[in-house]
Amino acid sequence: MRTAKLLLLSVAIAGLSACGRGLEFDIANTDSLALEQAIRAANEAPGHSTIRLARNGFYILSREAQAGLMLPAVQGRLTIEGNHAELRGYSTGPAAILEVREGARLRIRDLVMAEGTNGTLRNFGQLRLENVDVVDGSVATLPAIVLNHGELEAIGGEIAYNYLLSNRRDAGTVLNYGNASFTGTRIHGNRAIGSYPTVVVSGGVLNFGVVEARQLSFADNEIPSEDARGLSFGGILNVGNGQVRGGAPDADVLEAPTADIIAGR
After folding, report:
1. What is the mean pLDDT of the chain?
2. Would you call 118 exposed, middle or buried from its count of C-beta atoms within 10 A (0-12, 13-18, 19+)?
3. Residue 250 and residue 218: Cα distance in Å, rounded?
């Protein structure tokens, strides 16, 4: 039966390619494999595709869809309508939940993304999060829960209760090298553990790019006292050419001069 569905899906993709349209999918509750297949199909479609999850659904991601990712990387134009569902990772190996490739565009609405085991989200394209919660994540080798090298926009939602290993040169719950905009987002309850002689670590946002903050709030992003250093901070830690625009309170922003980083202060 599943083979027949895949054959019909291939025919649909071929037909839509001729007219430049995207695809639409409604994913049944708990059907994580269908979600994986829908993303792969959307990557092949020429237009903007939409995936709708079941209202208040629950999807367990128990295997890697590709190396280091629990779902296939997004390579086209896609909207995921979460309908207040939850994606929860139970991969046996370290893996992020989702990645947006360079040149791709992804919009996610009303979704919980939980328990990425090597970060949760990686963005190299354009990523818009609307009322998305990124929670309960951890890292194995990567330096961030949310890694941004592209254009990231978050409206509402929270990034909370994640664990970050600060045993690398630079680490942040959100690690921004591109342009990141936050409106009404809460970053709280994250923990950075571990130490390294020249580490620059933020339990909030470690910023090498541009952050635009509007009603962005931080709370309780702790680094244990025995590991804390002068270049550790629970809000926005600016490094190098990092800039903050918008209405972030001074108390939420710390400048880390390059000289201090080199000196390990």
Report:
1. 87
2. buried
3. 12
pTM: 0.89
Q: How far is CA 87 from the centre of its chain?
A: 13
CB-based contact 62:30 (threshold 8 Å)? no
SS3 175: strand
Q: What secondary structure letter does DSSP report for 38?
A: H
**249 CB-near residues (< 8 Å, 6+ apart):** none
Quick: pLDDT tens for 7-38: 344 434 444 444 568 999 999 999 999 999 99
- Cα→Cα distances 5→8, 10, 38, 112, Å: 5, 9, 11, 28
| CA atoms of 172 and 5, how far apart (whole Å) | 42
176-212 core/surface letters (b: 16 or more CB in 10 A; e: else): bbbbbbbbebbbbbbbbbbbbeebbbbbbbbbbbbbb
**Six-digit token pair at 208?**
């090498």
Tokens linked to 201 = 């670590």
pLDDT, one tens digit per residue, over 195-227 is 665 578 899 999 999 999 999 999 999 776 455
pLDDT at 205: 96
Residues, the chain: 265
The tokens of 179 are what? Answer: 């342009």
In angstroms, rounded to a whole number, what is the distance separating the alpha carbons of residues 187 and 183?
11
